[in-house]
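Here is the promised in-class demo. Please do not try to memorize the tokens; focus on the logic of going from shape to residues.
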């Protein structure tokens, strides 16, 4: 009798290898847009990463359109028409993403005049933009008021007085929201150390200032918790704010809106994402709070998701440039990205451990621990430490996962290095560049404009020299050498 192996008898060898590779490296949250091709290369929406790298170079961000839209729609499905949704622009302010937010029925939560301008450039109407930050200049307030934004948030009593004084000078009604620190402690979460909002004991004073200011159109309240891990925190904040709303009603001060901010953590590494679906019953819970407090005013609830929309949709592709054996059990892999100009969250939050995938060696098993270091001359430039990886060599491609939020907006030009380009990949595998790499002329302009130390023609000469296509020159030389 001939023995027949029952281990996937009908599955081709490649399919088994791919399945093992995907199980080894690809988490469930990426499985709908990541796969592995027959060579062992990571693919994004079916496109091998080396194809993207050949066209655009490294380091480069790849944003997955399907994942972004999926997350926008997830929030819309959970809340329907009960809650107004505003995308937090600060997480990723790329114009293409803001356009997607508009198309998916989101408004924008903007933290600066620059973000307001981006929202307008993305074809959102001024009334679809709220302006929320801790400090505004007279010019900022003039701009936001003249444009006609949905509301301007006062973060402190001083900020509110500034808004009131500016509104009086402009002789224009300014739609204003007061940000509140509810001073809550629940489980292992507390707002008592938050820098955001007017502390609870000062809120009614702020309400009186707003109500008595003739050019302040007081609309409601705002809460910014930041990195909230449980729906119970939002419920606790809502209870405190409902009492304040009731106090306003007693004083015949109408309240129209309550924003409970964002702060819905998305997953990085082994972290757990905020359970968005657990908030499905929140509108009903809030209505019961209002009824219990005998609040009769209709209140529009607002949430401001950001990180949970874009974080997991971002992939950072880098090349390995060196493999250094530090000692027998540890190796230093140097990549051409860094914690300064590519993945700054790794520097800001040391407790984050990014998943780094061996994008050009997905069939290879994990064999030893490595630290992935960036390409800048700084000892803190370590992207991740102590991860187990295959044997890597110069030229291999690495994929840093879950870098769609904050990485691009926090990236800087430390060491006078250009920030990376960004590519958007569609579900059908087509892709386009949605942000190009920096140019030296842009990086140096703030100094050249005022110091006048260099001739613009001199910079252009250096730029042109740098832009020479070295590959073409060398290929030409190779052909000449071959004829000799």
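The designed amino acids, position by position:
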């Amino acid at each position: 009798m001939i023995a027949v192996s029952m281990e996937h008898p009908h599955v081709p060898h490649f399919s088994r290898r791919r399945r093992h590779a995907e199980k080894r490296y690809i988490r469930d949250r990426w499985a709908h847009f990541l796969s592995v091709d027959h060579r062992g290369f990571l693919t994004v929406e079916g496109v091998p990463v080396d194809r993207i790298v050949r066209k655009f170079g490294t380091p480069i961000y790849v944003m997955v359109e399907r994942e972004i839209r999926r997350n926008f729609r997830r929030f819309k499905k959970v809340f329907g028409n009960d809650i107004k949704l505003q995308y937090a622009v600060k997480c990723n302010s790329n114009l293409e993403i803001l356009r997607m937010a508009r198309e998916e029925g989101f408004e924008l939560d903007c933290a600066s005049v620059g973000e307001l301008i981006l929202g307008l450039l993305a074809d959102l109407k001024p009334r679809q933009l709220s302006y929320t930050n801790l400090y505004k200049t007279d010019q900022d307030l003039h701009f936001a008021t003249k444009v006609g934004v949905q509301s301007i948030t006062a973060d402190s009593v001083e900020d509110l007085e500034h808004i009131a004084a500016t509104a009086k000078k402009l002789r224009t009604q300014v739609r204003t929201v007061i940000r509140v620190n509810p001073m809550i402690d629940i489980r292992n979460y507390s707002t008592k150390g938050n820098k955001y909002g007017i502390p609870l004991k000062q809120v009614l004073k702020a309400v009186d200032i707003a109500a008595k200011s003739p050019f302040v159109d007081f609309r409601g309240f705002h809460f910014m918790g930041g990195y909230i891990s449980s729906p119970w925190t939002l419920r606790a904040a809502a209870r405190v704010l409902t009492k304040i709303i009731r106090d306003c009603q007693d004083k015949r001060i109408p309240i129209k809106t309550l924003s409970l901010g964002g702060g819905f953590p998305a997953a990085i590494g082994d972290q757990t994402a905020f359970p968005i679906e657990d908030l499905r019953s929140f509108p009903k819970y809030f209505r019961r709070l209002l009824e219990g407090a005998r609040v009769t005013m209709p209140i529009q609830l607002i949430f401001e998701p950001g990180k949970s929309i874009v974080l997991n949709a971002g992939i950072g592709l880098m090349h390995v440039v060196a493999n250094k054996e530090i000692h027998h059990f540890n190796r230093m892999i140097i990549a051409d990205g860094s914690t300064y100009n590519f993945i700054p969250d790794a520097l800001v939050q040391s407790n984050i451990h990014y998943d780094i995938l061996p994008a050009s060696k997905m069939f290879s098993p994990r064999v030893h621990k490595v630290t992935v270091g960036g390409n800048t001359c700084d000892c803190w430039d370590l992207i991740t430490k102590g991860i187990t990886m295959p044997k890597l060599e110069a030229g291999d491609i690495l994929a840093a996962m879950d870098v769609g939020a904050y990485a691009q907006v926090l990236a800087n030009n430390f060491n006078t290095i250009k920030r990376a380009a960004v590519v958007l990949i569609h579900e059908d595998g087509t892709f386009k560049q949605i942000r190009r790499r920096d140019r030296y002329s842009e990086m140096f302009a703030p100094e050249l404009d005022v110091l006048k130390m260099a001739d613009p023609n001199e910079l252009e000469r250096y730029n042109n020299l740098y832009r020479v296509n070295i590959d073409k020159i060398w290929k030409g030389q190779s052909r000449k050498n071959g004829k000799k």
